[in-house]
Amino acid sequence: MAAGRLWSALTRPLIDQNPITLQILGICSALAVTTSLDTAVTMAASLTVVLVLSTVIVSLIRRHIPDSIRLIVQIVIVASLVIVIDQFLQAFFFDISQRLSVFVGLITTNCLVLGRTESFARSNPPLVSAADALGNGLGYSLVLILIGALRELFGTGKLFGAQVLPLVEQGGWFTPLSLMLLAPSAFFLLGGLVWAVRSIWPDQAEAPDTTPPIPEEARR
Amino acid sequence: MSDLFALFLRAMFVENMPLSFFLGLCTFLALSKRPETAVGLGIAMIGVMGVTVPLNQIIYTALLAPGAWAWAGMPELDLSYLSLLAFIGLIAASVQMIEMLLERFFPAIHAAFGVFLPLLTVQCAILGGSLFMVERRYALDEAFVFGLGSGAGFAIAVIMLSAIRSRLSYADLPAGLRGLGITFMLAGMMSLGFSSFTQMVAP
After folding, report:
1. Signal peptide position in this chain (chain B) (predicted)?
2. Closest approach of chain B CAs to the CA of A209, in angstroms?
3. Which of A180, A195, B115, B116 could covalently link to B181 via disulfide, CB atoms 3.0 to 4.6 Å apart?
4. What are φ and ψ of residue A174, in 5° steps?
5. Long-range contact list for A88-93, CB < 8 A, 24+ apart?
C-alpha cells in the first residue's frame, strides 16, 4: 500500500494534476526561460532540486513549526536553497546563469514550491512528500522542456544550439519565425498546450462561468 | 526629471511586468476574473512595489553591496549573495506592516483589498522588481520611480485583462479552452499589443 501511495504521489502530477496546465502554479518563471532549450532544462532541473529538498526539510520539521510563522519559515528555507543553487550555477555554468538573470532567484517566490510545501509537505511524512515534490517537479519540467523545444526549434531552427532545420540564409529551406522568441508566442503556445491537454482529457476542463440563456424559439 | 519620467513610462509600458517579463503571472491569472478584485490587487501592487523597491535599494547599497563595509575596515566583504534572503524578508515584513497600518487607520480600504495583501509576499513581480533594481544598478530615486512604474504597469494589465474576461464569460468557448486556456490567449494578444509601446521611450 505504501509503495502504491508513493507511486501515485509521483505520477499523478505528471498529467492528471500537472502543476502548470491544471493547478496554475509556477507559471511566473515557466514562460520567461523557454526561449531556448538549454535554459529551460537548467531551470527545470534547478526547480526540481529546490522543490524536493525544501519539501523534505519542511516535512522533517513539520511538527516543530508554529502555525503563525510557518510561511516565513518556509520562505527562509526555500530562499536558502535557492541561494545555494544560484551560487552553484554561477560557479559552474556561468553563461547560462547570465542568461537566466533574475529568474533563478525568482524560484524563491515560485508559487509551485510554496504551494507544495504548504499544502502537502506540511501534513505528510518526508518520503511521500519527496515523491510528490519529484512528481510535481517532473510535471513542471515536462511542460517547460516541451515549450522550450518548440520555441527554439521554430524560432531559430536549432535544438540545444545545434542546427536542426537548415536556414534559408545557409541554403536551406527554413525561415525562422522570430515571433517565437518574443513574449506573446509563449502565451499562445502555453494556451494551446492547455487546450490540447484538456481536449484529450476532457475531465480537466473548467465549468462554464454562465450557462447561455435558452433562445426565444426553443422556449416555445 | 525627464529621465525619471522616461523610466516610469518604460517600467509601466515597455517592460510591463506580467506581459513582457512574465512576472507575477500566478496572481495575474488567478485574480483577474472580476474587475473589482483586479482594481484592489492593482492598487495593492502599486503601494507595495513603491515601498519595497526603494527600501531594498537602501539595504543593498548600505549593507550588502561589495565594499559596503569598507568604513568598518572590511573592504573585501561581499555579502551580495545574501540579497535574496534580505529582500524576501523585507518584502514579507513590509507587507505585514502595510496590512497592520491599513487595518488600524483605514479599515475601509483594508476590507476592500485586505485579502490580497498576504498573497503579495510570494508575488514574483515584487521580488523581481528588487532583483532588477540590483541588476540594473538603480539609484534611490530611480528605484522609487521604477517600483511605482512597475506596480502601475501591473495594475493596468490586470485591470484590462479582468475587463476582457468579464465580457468573455458570456462567450460560448470550446470546453478545453475555457478558463485557463483562453486567458493565456488573451494575455498573449495583450502582450502583442503592448509590444507596440516598444518605441515609446528611447532605451
Report:
1. none
2. 6
3. A195
4. -95, 125
5. A89/A42, A89/A46, A93/A42
Q: Cα–Cα distance between A34 and A146 in angstroms, integer?
A: 9
Contact across the interface for B85 and A80, Cβ inside 8 Å = yes
The Cα of B168 is separated from the nearest Cα of chain A by a number of Å equal to 9
- Residue A167 C-alpha, separation from nearest chain B C-alpha, in angstroms: 26
B73 in a domain, yes or no? no
Our count of domains for chain B comes to 1
Q: What is the pTM of this model?
A: 0.82
Identify whether B86 is part of a domain.
Answer: yes
The Cβ of residue A15 has, within 10 Å, a number of other Cβ atoms equal to 15
Residues of chain A contacting residue B118, judged by C-beta atoms under 8 Å apart: 71
CA distance B33 to A23: 16
Domain that holds residue B83: 2-23+35-66+78-195
Interface A-B, measured as beta-carbon pairs within 8 A, has a size of 144
Residues B9-49: tens digit of each pLDDT: 888 888 888 888 888 887 888 778 888 888 888 888 888 89
Find where cell 502548470 sits: A20
pLDDT digits (tens, 9 = 90+) for B99-153: 888 888 878 777 766 566 777 777 888 888 888 888 888 888 889 999 999 999 9
Of A30, A108, A188, the CB nearest to B88: A108
Mutation target for A interface from B15, B16, B25: give the one with most A CBs within 10 A. Answer: B25
